């Protein structure tokens, strides 16, 4: 049975049901030719949802509105999944995070964002209150996520889907990096979730807002007009109609794709070291690793064209649970995908019982850590970075031990070692 979702393809409330459908194996189609502002105001639509808001799910047994409810319905339709966890208490916790994120996160993001883009009256003290309430919610979520990969249990539930969609609205509209850096575990969680293949299929590539949107002019005028209204005997101009805003605003949607600027690293003088040759040597060396791969590395290494860096996780004492620690590192390496052409890395997860230490070695094109990596991969800030002094034998040997996954490493066993290549 295929269901029809009436929503535009970019609506975050529609994403909730669509991602859920991916996890539940439910066939869900978007209503064809849906036009925001028209389709949802038609008499047929208003019969399904009298306030004309999206999303609406059309089922053979009737229509359902309210996005969280639609997602719950989709999750339950087949009943053979663990989207509500696997016990009554899991179920309660799933519902807890859904309500929490709707009230403490989504509502406050909307109070912040919509007045700025012209939907609602912009009042600075109201915005301040929205931001401060949002921070309280994010702080609570951040501390929970410090020791948990998922919101409930050990796999993705409906709570992760809905919370991520609510965070999506914030991350893509007004929560800039400068704002979210106070909540590193929320950041890690969000980027891990949106990079899950089933999320990515619906959301596409997610980009964090570069700036908080400026307050639109019509809105300032409307606010001024409102003030005027209260002044007697003065002519009050007709206020502009409240724009009907869908996310993102149409002008953003219509923007032509800009040509991709060239990465500055491609403009560096050519290097004798070919990164792919090193990666191939690393992957193909099965025996005599020291004599072949490590020796090969130093023969190839070009200190002019590349730099080597040690990194150490700043919050090792939080790494008490092995799988959470491993997931952190896996997420980091996934997010480094953007640097595949310019980097090689080894990450060691050290220790037998928690807290586990996470340390690594990275090779980057260029004399410094590339700026785009620093800017775009938030994990970078969670590590302390020190340039390897290749003339110092001890540091060189430490680098070798990392490339080789030498165990014990600095006197301790390895839980795991991961390679970025
Ligand atoms: N609580 C509702 C909110 C629905 C809602 O606000 N939808 C917006 C788009 S995100 C809408 O349809 N706006 C159009 C309008 O108000 O005319 C839900 O979660 O489904």
UniProtKB/TrEMBL annotation:
Region (Disordered): 217-269
Enzyme class: transferase
Listed EC numbers: 2.5.1.18
Skewed-composition ranges (Basic and acidic residues): 233-247
EF-1-gamma C-terminal domain: residues covered: 261-421
Top-level taxon of the source organism: Eukaryota
InterPro entries: EF-1-gamma_plant, EF1B_G_C, EF1B_G_C_sf, Glutathione-S-Trfase_C-like, Glutathione-S-Trfase_C_sf, Glutathione_S-Trfase, Glutathione_S-Trfase_N, GST_C
GST C-terminal domain: residues covered: 87-215
CDD domains recorded: GST_C_EF1Bgamma_like, GST_N_EF1Bgamma
Signal peptide: none
Keyword vocabulary terms for this entry: Elongation factor, Protein biosynthesis, Transferase
Molecular function in Gene Ontology: glutathione transferase activity; translation elongation factor activity
A family per Pfam: GST_C
Domain GST N-terminal: residue ranges: 1-82
PANTHER family documented for this protein: ELONGATION FACTOR 1-GAMMA 1-RELATED
Quaternary structure annotation from Swiss-Prot or TrEMBL: EF-1 is composed of four subunits: alpha, beta, delta, and gamma.
Task of the protein: Probably plays a role in anchoring the complex to other cellular components.
Protein name: EF1Bgamma class glutathione S-transferase
